[in-house]
Amino acid sequence: MAYDKFIVLKSSAVPMPIENVDTDQIIPARFLKATERKGFGDNLFRDWRYNPDNTPKKDFVLNNDTYSGKILVGGKNFGSGSSREHAAWAVYDYGFRCVISSFFADIFRNNCLNVGVLPVQVSAGFLDSIYTEIEKDPNTQIEVNLPEEKVTILSTGESEKFDINGYKKENMLNGFDDIDYLSSMKSEIEQFAATLPF
Amino acid sequence: MSKTLFDKVWDSHVVRSLEDGPDVLFIDRHLVHEVTSPVAFQGIKQRNATVLFPARTFATADHNTPTINQHLPVEDPLSANQLKALEENANSYGISHWGLGHEKNGIVHVVGPEYGITQPGATIVCGDSHTSTHGAFGAIAFGIGTSEVEMVLATQCIMQPKAKKMRINIKGELSFGVTPKDVALYIISRLTTSGATGYFVEYAGEVFEKMSMEGRMTVCNLSIEMGARGGMIAPDEKTFEYIKGREFTPKGAAWDKAMEYWKTLKTDDDAVFDKEFNFDAADIEPMITYGTNPGMGIGISKNIPNAADISGGASTYQKSLGYMDFHEGEEMIGKPVDYVFIGSCTNGRIEDFRAFASIVKGRKKADHVTAWLVPGSHKVESAIKEEGILQILEDAGFELREPGCSACLAMNDDKVPAGKYAVSTSNRNFEGRQGPGSRTLLASPYSAAAAAVTGKVTDPRDFLKNNN
């Protein structure tokens, strides 16, 4: 599915300094029953965000007006667990275009790249700096520059480079997905299949 | 150049390698279920694409299905809609569909091996992280997202960079009462829930060589719980014996030819891994988890660690214990248990039910325990009946349900209520995984059975000893 291009994102950020945030927290299984990709943002972090009677939990960061923005800053090992792409859809649908963490689970990272959410892995020290600056000023602006592969805390000027492979980078910059690429090599795939033992 | 098992299978499936990018990897077998496929099929339709090789894809309904009264219409309209969508999509693209009520229906990772869809040297994907199960046969098998499900339907390929390689060796002999589930929970507790992220794991050494195919599936299944892309074990005589004659395995001359190839599927002696771990089987005892990720496991006779003694952030650790209402230093033995669940792609096979039955035989379920016994497939269900296990279970006060993923992820009605404790043979103890507010203790079928009988966390070796 096509998504908006990602070039440079400048935004305040929502801090979530919890480690091992798993995809069951990002979107609980009972909200995976849709047959279309829409409305998942409403249930992002459902059980951390709402009480069983559907009233908002006041102490959860998404219910705190102090914090907003298109960047989610999560703790180490963000997105562990299930392969549900619904987790990445929920993050995107809620309005986040970028997740920053010091470590990502593999499948979640991959899913993000496939749906237009940029996963930015930074050092533990840089992650702490982001949290510290947001604590000082919740409106701290963070710039995520994909062409330069660089993330900067604008108030302090502190910045760090991040990694992304050239192919995925090109896709994100243009809003392309893998199927566009794979479809262009169909006859090569068919020839390859003919050589396989299975 | 020397190659690992993983190298051999991966490299033979690379259609094209992109410079500074992923490999285009050909997928031999694609398993599909109702939850992660509808949006992928929708994408195929919107692009006016088609399914390139429908015979390489197999669909079964499992995540959403009820485990009682499967002959009746599914009550939850959203679940019913997803099941219908799967059936329609499979039918319109010519894909085998083993829906609710079909004799071959069951959990996708249980039926794949049962019918010989899973084979050594194959690449297997599914929109489900526990696809790693199939690695037990020397296949490269891993979970993918829905965008990738669409890619496989449309082109039979995905685009991923090759993972780094890890080998986990366990030497020696397992102690009395220690099962493959305990081995896996032990490894995860040592590596942590993210310790293998970025790696594809090969399990090697005496412990895995001696392990049954079903045990190997349990271990490979849990690879994802330490972050690994997948896990695999080199195929051997046990593997070939298991798959021979199954519906989708090669027959006659094709079998002989396949065997010739399969026998080459092992890591070369001088091949190099990016990371290697060595453990001793003697250090492993029956395991149980006390926290909210599968890495938070300890020997069942041990006490809950102090925050100061664990790696990772103290506040995350405290949040986790707070959710469980457990405290540092407490012992696990004797903790009250309200629910017991045996089933899932981790421990829903016949050996698991044999193990469970060996403990409950001649005993009675504790009155206050609600027990859900859910076979992984109809084939498992039939074996339970044919082997006389059903009678043992019923005599002990248990009921057998119908196949499905059930309380492992609680998408259907099998939900553990808020605040209640479940000893579960499944794979994840995340917050709310088995129902909003539920508290999960992951353990082996032996430990689940012992808890079901006593109504509290119990060392299964106490019962197993008395059996001898």
TrEMBL record, chain A:
GO terms for cellular component: 3-isopropylmalate dehydratase complex. It catalyses: (2R,3S)-3-isopropylmalate = (2S)-2-isopropylmalate. Its EC number is 4.2.1.33. Pathway: Amino-acid biosynthesis; L-leucine biosynthesis; L-leucine from 3-methyl-2-oxobutanoate: step 2/4. It comes from the Bacteria. GO terms for biological process: L-leucine biosynthetic process. InterPro entries: 3-IsopropMal_deHydase_ssu (IPR004431), Aconitase/3IPM_dehydase_swvl (IPR015928), AconitaseA/IPMdHydase_ssu_swvl (IPR000573), IPMI_Swivel (IPR033940), LeuD (IPR050075). Keywords: Amino-acid biosynthesis, Branched-chain amino acid biosynthesis, Leucine biosynthesis, Lyase. SUPFAM superfamilies: LeuD/IlvD-like. GO terms for molecular function: 3-isopropylmalate dehydratase activity. Residues 5-123 form the Aconitase A/isopropylmalate dehydratase small subunit swivel domain. Catalyzes the isomerization between 2-isopropylmalate and 3-isopropylmalate, via the formation of 2-isopropylmaleate. Heterodimer of LeuC and LeuD. Belongs to the LeuD family. LeuD type 1 subfamily. This is 3-isopropylmalate dehydratase small subunit.
From TrEMBL, chain B:
GO terms for biological process: L-leucine biosynthetic process. One of its GO terms (molecular function) is 3-isopropylmalate dehydratase activity. Its EC number is 4.2.1.33. Binds 1 [4Fe-4S] cluster per subunit. Its cofactor is [4Fe-4S] cluster. CDD domains: IPMI. Keywords: 4Fe-4S, Amino-acid biosynthesis, Branched-chain amino acid biosynthesis, Iron, Iron-sulfur, Leucine biosynthesis, Lyase, Metal-binding. [4Fe-4S] cluster binds at residues 345, 405, 408. Pathway: Amino-acid biosynthesis; L-leucine biosynthesis; L-leucine from 3-methyl-2-oxobutanoate: step 2/4. InterPro entries: 3-IsopropMal_deHydase_lsu, Acnase/IPM_dHydase_lsu_aba_1/3, Acoase/IPM_deHydtase_lsu_aba, Aconitase_4Fe-4S_BS, Aconitase_4Fe-4S_dom, IPM_dehydratase_rel_enz, IPMI_cat. Pfam families: Aconitase (PF00330). It catalyses: (2R,3S)-3-isopropylmalate = (2S)-2-isopropylmalate. Residues 7-455 form the Aconitase/3-isopropylmalate dehydratase large subunit alpha/beta/alpha domain. Catalyzes the isomerization between 2-isopropylmalate and 3-isopropylmalate, via the formation of 2-isopropylmaleate. Heterodimer of LeuC and LeuD. Belongs to the aconitase/IPM isomerase family. LeuC type 1 subfamily. This is 3-isopropylmalate dehydratase large subunit.
